[in-house]
Amino acid sequence: MKPRHLDEGFSLIEVVIVIMLMGIVIIAVLTAVITSVATSAVTRSGARVETVIVNAADRVNRAPKSCDYSAYAQAAVQTEGWAASAATVTQEYYQPAIDPTSPGTWTAGPTSSPACPAGALTDLLVQRVSVTVRSPDGRVRRSIQVVKSDV
């Protein structure tokens, strides 16, 4: 008669190998989950910044002619619940060249009214407003330019 060895179980080496393999698989899965969560957070932040930047550009575009459009961009940022400092605005006006065959230049006016020459609105004024929005966590930054013109 042959002895039956039904209750042998697993050896210590087999158990250690299974635990190591399970550990490798679990580490790979956890790494993928952590990467996915981080990517999702950046994507969500980017979508919010895109929404704010489009809102800011729309507000600047629809604003009445002015020498300073900072308040419009800051209002767009604040509607998202962010600090006004999350929006940076650069404003310039177009200074045509004396010679019509030469290109003109974009010039910043005085600090109090950067989008106007000599701090005053003029006829046929062309203005360029650049808005940069930064997410509160600082990971996403987008910029857009709006050109306003009477011409």
Automatic annotation (TrEMBL):
SUPFAM superfamilies: Pili subunits
UniProt key word Transmembrane: yes
Protein name: Unannotated protein
Membrane-spanning intervals of the chain: 12-34
Keywords for the protein's UniProt record, in alphabetical order: Membrane, Transmembrane, Transmembrane helix
PROSITE patterns according to UniProt: PROKAR_NTER_METHYL
